[in-house]
Design goal:
With about 525 residues, the chain is of the alpha/beta class. The protein has 14 helices and 16 strands. The strands form four sheets. Strands 1, 2, 5, 6, 7, 8 and 15 form a seven-stranded mixed β-sheet that branches. Strand 1, helix 1 and strand 2 form a beta-alpha-beta unit. The longest helix has 24 residues. It is globular, with a radius of gyration of 22 Å. The termini are far apart.
């Protein structure tokens, strides 16, 4: 089946929905592709909130810019940083206009939090489920927009370029164009052809390539893998952020439950299980140091003491205030027998956020014409070597706006490419092959966690490279002879993404930001 839309949006988090809401009108129809249901996205998992300068008496854009540059180890793109910081207040207003609520004080001003790396209180939030609230508000707006057609439980297999017309495309081809995407319909088992004037990838992160992650299982890097196979530029993949404080619960690894950084901003103290503080050994900012430093410090302490977690302590804070600020965390910890007002919270680092991705310009456009990328799958340059807490959601909103404005100025100049062939869906898959796919997925997770984690080395990275190369060859051979299914496509994608993280980590001959290697140590203290 061939479908035609002015805009094809692949991904339904804050990035995809923000873009769709801005471009959809009576003359421009939008297809919104959701891998599962519209309410399952990384956006909904974000607890902390959204960073924006809203109190100009106490805060300033210059401070937010400087905090971002410091966290990014001074390799952030300054123009991208300025674009996000200066446009953040307008982004907040758009979210509010779509029905999103943020907590306010009794005087009507925003109740601002402070998180690690921020010099001022500038985090807008909704209790400790800010992402869920944003997702809720945007879902309501999307469902009431008659110009957006929602395709839930549909899976993007490949984006369509000249390659599918029989034209050779390489990374040196200067005029690659995107004509839409091949989308798997689970009800029919067929791969349909979606033609579009403009395609936007908003497919989220890559956490599922690791054995333990705060991301949902759907975070398999699909957009990045598709864009890379289509010869788009992919950048900064070595910068994978490990959140320092996921709830330590061996029964819950995919996704692990996140203990928001706002809890450390609130006054939480990192301790060993015996109550001893340790952050003073690593950074003068103590528990409020940037995430990469905190994650490596925790990893180091766990190795020194042979333990599988450390603790976060808020028992010295007012119990009622703690329950008011963090009601969901309080209830979640009670389910595993921990009252956070009286007991330490067991925490450990796990894969959380990707700072790299599909390289885009200030308009959100990739190196492939007519293909835009927004949100975690994109690399705008904002985050540099390490993301500053709560900058990601506002980046998605600001760049969705930039991409919407730019694409609206050119969308009517494009035509549908009707020469695109339909997908060849020959082949079958046996139960034995399905078992192999599941086993290979676990092997990717273990390889990435063991060799391309918080602390790296040349030996570990090359070992990962060798394992992934073998898996790649086996999987591509299998993909050629079976019908396209979600599980084989996801396996291809996690292997592609794991390869990119590993290769770009090998290429960076220094410790910088989130990429820390013992072969090029950066600090006097040693995180081996």
């Amino acid at each position: 089946m061939v479908r035609k839309f002015d805009y094809l949006v692949i991904g339904s988090g804050v990035a995809g929905m923000s873009f769709a809401l801005q471009v959809a009108d009576k003359d421009h129809r939008v297809a919104l592709i959701c891998k599962t249901t519209i309410d399952e996205a990384n956006t909904a998992k974000a607890q902390g909130g959204v960073a924006a300068v809203t109190d100009l008496e106490k805060d300033s854009f210059e401070k937010h810019i400087q905090d971002t540059m410091i966290a990014g180890d001074y390799i952030s793109d300054i123009e991208a940083v300025k674009q996000v910081v200066y446009n953040a207040p307008a982004g907040i207003k758009r979210l509010v206009s779509w029905g999103v609520n943020f907590d306010k004080k009794t005087d009507g001003t925003y109740d601002l939090h402070r998180e690690g790396g921020h010099s001022e209180f500038r985090i807008l939030h909704h209790a400790d489920d800010s992402g869920y609230e944003i997702q809720r508000g945007l879902i309501e707006a999307v469902k009431h927009n008659r110009y957006i057609t929602l395709f839930e439980n549909h899976f993007a297999v490949e984006i369509i370029t000249q390659h599918h017309l029989g034209i050779e495309v390489t990374r040196r081809t200067p005029d690659i164009e995107c004509y839409g995407a091949y989308i798997l319909d689970p009800d029919t088992g067929k791969v349909d052809t979606f033609l579009s004037h403009i395609t936007l990838l908003a497919t989220g992160g890559i956490g599922a390539i690791y054995a333990s992650t705060t991301n949902p299982n759907i975070a398999t890097g699909d957009g990045i893998a598709m864009a890379y196979r289509a010869k788009a530029t992919v950048k900064d993949m070595e910068f994978v952020q490990f959140h320092p404080t996921a709830l330590f619960n061996p029964k819950e690894k995919h996704p692990a439950y996140l203990i928001t950084e706002a809890m450390r901003g609130y006054g939480g103290i990192l301790r060993l299980p015996n109550g001893e503080e340790f952050m003073q050994k690593y950074d003068k900012r103590l528990s409020l140091a940037p995430r990469d430093i905190v994650a490596r410090a925790i990893d180091k302490e766990m190795k020194i003491h042979g333990i599988d977690h450390v603790c976060l302590d808020v028992t010295h804070k007012d119990p009622e205030e703690t329950k008011k600020h963090f009601p969901n965390i309080y209830e979640k910890c009670l389910t595993i027998g921990i009252d956070i007002t009286k007991e330490y919270i067991p925490v450990c680092p796990c894969a959380h956020y990707l700072c790299g991705g599909i390289k885009v310009d200030l308009n959100g456009e990739s190196s492939i014409h007519r293909l835009y990328a927004v949100g975690e799958c994109s690399c705008t340059g904002l985050h540099g070597g390490n993301r500053l807490a709560s900058n990601s959601l506002i980046e998605a909103v600001v760049y969705a706006d930039a991409a919407a404005r730019h694409s609206q100025s050119v969308v009517d100049s494009y035509d549908f490419n009707t020469k695109v062939p339909e997908w060849n869906d020959e082949g079958t898959m046996t139960n034995e092959e399905k078992i192999l796919i599941a086993q290979d997925m676990k092997e990717v997770e273990q390889t990435m966690s063991n060799y391309v984690g918080i602390v790296r080395s040349n030996l570990r990275l090359h070992r990962a490279w060798t394992r992934l190369d073998l898996l790649y060859e086996e999987t591509e051979e299998l993909f050629k002879r079976v019908k396209a299914t979600r599980d084989i496509c996801e396996l291809r994608n996690v292997i592609n993404v794991g390869y990119l993280v590993t290769r770009q980590a090998i290429e960076r001959k220094e410790s910088r930001g989130l990429h820390y290697t013992i072969d090029y140590p950066k600090h006097a203290y040693d995180f081996k």
